[in-house]
Structures are given as structure tokens and as C-alpha cells.
Amino acid sequence: MGRFLEDAEAILTAAETATQATPTPTNFTILISPEGGIHMLADSDWPLASLEAHHGARTLYRVSQASGRIAVEGRSGSHRCRVEAEHPQAVARRLLAGPIPALPLIP
Predict the structure, then answer these.
(1) Contacts 24+ apart (CB under 8 A), 76-84
(2) Range of the domain at 51
(3) Which pLDDT band holds residue 66 (cuts at 50, 70, 90)?
(4) Residue 107, domain member (yes or no)
(5) What is the rounded CA–CA span in Å between residue 36 and residue 7?
(6) CA distance 57 to 76
(7) Helices 88-96, 2-21: inter-axial angle, 10-degree rounding
(8) pLDDT tens digit string along 40-64?
(9) Contact at 8 Å (CB) between 29 and 63?
(10) In a designed cystine with 39, which of 3, 31, 45, 74 is the match (CB 3.0 to 4.6 A)?
(11) What pTM was estimated for this model as a whole?
């Protein structure tokens, strides 16, 4: 599963970078054919299994953003993965808010 997961992580890194470049990033799905061809779909709400069957893809990755998180869901044959990260803006807001006050210790 090495290359499959490495690709999912690389796509997540690229998606994190893209969110810094645009205020309204698009959710999208990447389909890779058995021959290695790449096809991208914007805002597809089809389940990955349906896209896999319809397009004959061997590997699929869906990039989505919601609730301050960026996620990549992957599917390749019998392998599945999901990697996610906090949106960079959400991390920045939390850091700029300052430290969380410590709770008093109860003796």
C-alpha cells in the first residue's frame, strides 16, 4: 500500500497549499485509469465505488474541505485510506487566540 498512501499524503499537502491561494477552494476527485491516465472531476457527489465502476478507474482520490479540515479519501482495488489535516487558517486562528488557561489543580 506504500505508493497509494504516499500519493494520498502528497495530494493532501498540495490541497493544503491550494487553500492558501484561494478563499473558496473546490472539492474534487482524481481518477487514475489502469493505463495511468488522470481525469479530474470538480464537486462530484458520486460515491467513489460508483465512480470507479463508471469510469473504470484503478485508483481514486477525493479531496474535500469542511469544518476547518481538509481530507483526502482514497480507493485502489481492495485498499482504502483517509488522511486529513486541519485547515491552515483554523490552525492560525487557534494560535493567535493565545494559550488556553490552565485548570487549577485539585489537592
Answers:
(1) 76/4, 79/1, 79/4, 81/1, 81/4, 81/5, 81/8, 83/5, 83/8, 83/9, 83/12, 84/12
(2) 2-92
(3) confident
(4) no
(5) 13
(6) 9
(7) 60
(8) 999 998 999 999 999 999 999 999 9
(9) yes
(10) 31
(11) 0.78
- Output the 3-class SS for 29-78: EEEECCCCCEEEEECCCCCHHHHHHHHCCCEEEEEEEECCEEEEEEEECC
Separation in Å, CA 84 to CA 54, 73, 91, 96: 26, 9, 13, 22
∠ at Cα 105 (103, 107), nearest 5°? Answer: 160
Domain contains 37: yes
* 85 SS3 class: strand
Q: Which grid cell sits at 85?
A: 489535516
* Grid coordinates belonging to 98: 493565545
Give the number of domains in the chain: 1
Q: Do 61 and 73 touch, CB atoms closer than 8 A?
A: yes
